[in-house]
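[Meeting: bench + compute handoff]

Bench side (C.D.) handed over the final construct sequence. Compute side (W.E.) agreed to return the predicted structure before the next meeting so the bench team could plan truncations. Sequence as handed over:
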Amino acid sequence: MIKVSIIMPSLNVAKYIKPCIESVIHQTLSEIEILIIDAGSTDGTLNILSEYEEKDPRIHIFHSDIKSYGYQMNWGISLASGEYIGIVETDDIIQPDMFEALYNETFNEKSDYVKGTAEGFFQSPHGVEWRFPILPCPVLKDKYIAIPKETPELFLYDNFLWNGIYRKDFLQKIKFNETPGAAFQDIGALFQIISSADKGVYLNHLVYNYRQDNAAASSYNEKSFLYAATEYRYIEQFLPRLSHDWETIYYLKMGGLSINRFLFMAGSGHYWEESEAGIEEFRKKLTYAIKNKQITSFNSFNWDKILSFSENPQALYKSLRNEYSSKLKRLYSILEFSKNHKVYIFGAGNYGVFIHTFLSLNNIDVIAFCDNNIQKQHRTLQNLPILSPAETLSQKEDSCYIITATKYIQEITQQLIQLGVEQERITFYNGGIDMYLLKEFE
């Protein structure tokens, strides 16, 4: 009996497909089928996949003449014979127990879907890696059981299809938008899934590794506003049957995506003229939502930026580009500060990991992390020890400290000074985390 059908849409991913397919075929759950829907790869992807198909009878390759992620997904769902359906993007890597962990949970909770957590990862050509957590809901201790169709705010947080499994008879009711290409076609499917599911389970269990260094990914596509606008138009057909709260969430999600796109645009260094029609469509819709108080300063995390976007997208771009340039300038100053020193990174959190990745890209010697949190001390992070501040003093002669906390920078500086560290050997970074910044130093 096939427990999980795994759909893998592919197109020209020869650079990434081996680690991806290896992670799928070596799942601890063996009762799976692997349905690869290829849209006409020409870079050697099919040759690699065909070798795996010959060795593993669970793998089945299907050739699509239509280059549409939505079409590939709809076809894969129609072919599935398992109890549940999973989705794996062919440039990502999954955890060995992903499908076993999710499938086993279906016995405890009869749900339309079960999802785990993920980690995004950026891997440089030199092998340096940066990781960050991706949570599918705002509060997730051990397990969260939701009635998604009555919880519209889930649509703001649950951003991905690939970190879960879906009951086949439930997913077969979902229709992907079959527009050309592969950009943002998961948004409409996610909206349908969350707005119609009677029960969804979210596990605090890492299942998926989401690649962020693929330059061909839709995140970096300068036409992305055009694709996103098409997908949001697709969603509009489902709004009339739902409560007013869903319409509010629809606009909030649109606002968040718009700001996300502008952050990528700022990193690219130029305004995306090719997306002008999509930008204008979103601007008009968000202006309407602001006028009708569906987006306000009380319910939007990005209120100021969304307001700026609705008034003048070009001005927002210039503002974000200036912020990006300031962050880049700050990183260059940290790089200069760190040269010819042994570096301690004060703060074993996301900012600390980001700075460690940045320094590693530039061949700067990082000795260790340090942190005031006793629970973090004497563990490892990025293959480095996490020490107490006092434990770092043994190397103080030629060491320096980079504070990566977002709060209490002055207090931490004074703490280090009291421990005997000279002021000139202390600096800080709180400029934010941005993948484009790392790409500047590859």
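W.E. noted at the follow-up: The mean pLDDT is 93. C.D. will use this when planning the next construct.
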